[in-house]
Amino acid sequence: MPISKKDEAVLSKKLQLRELPPAAQGVVGAFGIIGLSGAVLAVVRMEAVDYGYLGLLLFLAAITGRTKVRLVGGSSLSLITTVVLVAMIMLGSSAAVLVGICGVVVQCAIPRRKFISQHLIFNVGMIVVTVFLASLGYYTVVRDSHAPGIDRLIGSLVACIVYYFSSSICVSIIVGLSGKKSIFRVWHDSFLYTAPSFVIAGLLAFSVSQYMASMGPTVLLVVASILYLCYYSYRVYTESLEKEKQHAREMAELFNSTLSTLALAIDAKDRNTHGHIQRVQKYSRAIAEAMHLSEEEIKAIAAAALLHDIGKLAIPEYILSKRGPLTPDEMRKMRMHPQLGAEIISNIKFPYPVADSISAHHERFDGTGYPKGLAGRGIPLGARVLAVADVFDAYTSDGLERAEILEEAIRALREGSGTFFDPDIVRVWESIYRNVVNWSSAASPTAYGDIHRATSEVKILEELTQSLSKVETVDGIAEAVSVAIRRRFPECDLVLLAGKHEGVPVEYEDKVIATITVAQPNVFFSDDEISLTRAVAEKIAGPFAKAMALEMARRDATLDKLTGMPNRRAFEMTCASLKRTTISVIVIDVDAFKAVNDNFGHKAGDEALIRIADHIRAAFHDAYLACRLGGDEFVVLSNAGTRVLRMQIRNFRHMVTWDPAHNEYEKMGFGVSCGLAATPIDGENIEQAMHRADERMYASKTRFKRLVGRTMAVVK
User: Fold this and answer.
1) 288 part of a folded domain
2) Is the pLDDT of residue 449 over 60?
3) Strands (E) located in 537-690
4) Tens digits of residue pLDDT in 92-115
5) 23 lies in which domain range?
6) Which of 243, 258, 278 is the C-terminal boundary of a domain?
7) Residue 330: in which H helix or E strand, if any?
């Protein structure tokens, strides 16, 4: 069991031995000495053996050394185990050491581009230790060559178990030390479940040794064939599992992006707390990491922080926007948001507890909070963390960037420690907050002068603030800015552009995210007018950043990542907007796509889909929408006439068929099948027309398959 692919990722970040942690360097050096000494002793102490068998075993070790199976946990398993055990049982421990070293050298040195010196040094030492301990276990049970079969069987099982523990523990030690991980956790997660494969290797080695006397080298050839068959079948199985894992990862990414979009919508609703959710999540994650919580607990707290105010979606807008104190009835409604938030997300199947933290983030440590009056450790840990982060941000989010504000916030947390907040969490945050909190922008030297701006400018800014509370899009913010500026400069030309351009920059978190360009014919701006424009830029920075992020999230949610085309969600949204509209539907399906994947690999299949998407854009250039529904299915919505569409379909099929990149797929019958239908002729709505187009497409596909079949029969 050499170092796995996943473990290589830990070590390959430090390509030089001297760059490994000191403990890992010591282990690699010790194993290097052991490996060199073991190889020398094996040669010196080699007894008289059948060198024909030894040569055959060395050859098999070199072959099996390259046949690694990548396991589900990310580790890998080599077929060399059986060969080494056979050498140990038949030729002794010295021969087994040489056979093992041969396999390890081939495994680590080929291909050359992946060669890493510390891998080879460590693996040679590890195989020497492993073979020595396995031999010790075997020959403790089997004391001479005439031992009965049951003793040899037990000895083989003991040897394979010792081999398993020795190799897995050695690899876990070096990986744990190199990546600063728990050695036991590495062993438990990556190697524990591989134990049965070693037992099978031991049984197979015992069988070979039993039949070798009567059948000779033939047994080794049969075993080699069996090993390769096992290797190939298991590799196919693990590749299938890897695809499922990849799909799960994609779903997780979609899930996270959906949560982020939802959080942006929550944040955009409450104009008094822009940026609050992102800051609370940042502070909460920092506290959880400083407390050395598990990765699952950190993710749970981060998710709860992202959604802790989701219950405000059910709170009336006028309460959230109110600047003065709330009435008792308004306060009662506001206090409902933690429980409402927990109920809103109760149907989301999180892999970790989130709802309890959201429900309890306004509980107090002394039991006088709401909604349930929980106290002390009875409050979920995530809620206790959120309470500290939430209150700290409430103190520091007024935009006044002074050290006094931070000290005041920390003083409030200290005063509330033991009553409002968990004292342990307050101490953790107090020790790290200076390294976590970053002001959104540098303090302006004219900050105090800005307080005394003209009354008219203040009014413009107040009206702009009200306008921004009603819009959540980039275009909406641009329109609000245009209206506000033109109140002061009626004849000006104003443009709000995303990115850095010539004009007044809009900065958010020390980055220029947009530029306000204002021009007046034959008039220069005064300092006060420039100051007003800068104030507008400051006012819109937060909302504009959130609007950009929200629009980007929405755009990403409607795009297919592989082809860059709109996806099924975009198609469904378009269909909803085109009800009772006359439109044509073209359903497209790729022929023999599975054969391309099976014979040339999924990368070739993905490249074919990308080219087909490009051909669709070129052929149906005037389409209302062209998108990928999923897999090898595409759909086009167009307002063009039937004759034009038939010509476009014909041209599109020719593009795909005559594409030079598809020449090697021609024998498989690679191409595209298309079906055309229109509303209201073929259906009252797009869904019915699409069903009819789908039927026509499959009819076309069937005819094409028959034609290909007859053609292939004639060729044969």
Assistant:
1) yes
2) no
3) 584-591, 625-630, 633-638, 671-678
4) 888 888 888 888 888 777 766 666
5) 5-243
6) 243
7) helix 328-334
Rounded Cα gap, residues 218 and 52, in angstroms:
13
Helices 80-91 and 51-64, packing angle to 10 deg:
160
pLDDT, mean of residues 198-213 = 74
What pLDDT, on a 0 to 100 scale, did the predictor assign at position 216? Answer: 58
Angle, helices 80-91/117-141, rounded to nearest 10 degrees: 40
Check: CB of residue 141 under 8 Å from CB of residue 155. Answer: yes
Does residue 482 sit in the same domain as residue 405?
Answer: no
CB atoms within 10 A of CB 286: 20
616-649 pLDDT, tens digit per residue, is: 999 999 999 999 998 899 999 999 999 999 999 9
Q: What share of the chain is helix, strand, coil (3-state, %, to 5)?
A: 70, 10, 25
Please determine, for residue 243, whether its predicted confidence score (pLDDT) is greater than 80.
no
Say if residues 118 and 20 touch (Cβ distance below 8 Å).
Answer: yes
Q: Which residues pair with 506 in a beta bridge?
A: 514
Same-domain pairing of 411 and 455: no
Centre a 10 Å sphere on the Cβ of residue 81 and count the other Cβ atoms it contains: 27
- The single residue listed with the structure tokens 């869904």 is 687
Cα separations in angstroms, 511 against 48, 170, 196: 75, 48, 56
Query: Is a pLDDT exceeding 50 seen at residue 362?
Result: yes
For residues 682 and 465, give the distance between their C-alpha atoms in angstroms, rounded to a whole number. 51
Q: How far apart are CA 302 and CA 289, in angstroms?
A: 11
Query: Do 205 and 303 belong together in one domain?
Result: no
Q: For residues 506 and 516, is the Cβ–Cβ distance under 8 A?
A: yes
Long-range contact set of residues 680-686: C-beta below 8 Å, sequence gap at least 24: 680/582, 685/579, 685/580, 686/575, 686/578, 686/583, 686/585, 686/637
Q: Taking the model in full, what pTM does it have?
A: 0.40
In a domain, 560, yes or no: no
231 and 342 fall within a common domain: no
Place of tokens 């909070």: 369
- Could you tell me the CATH number of the domain that includes residue 598? 3.30.70.270
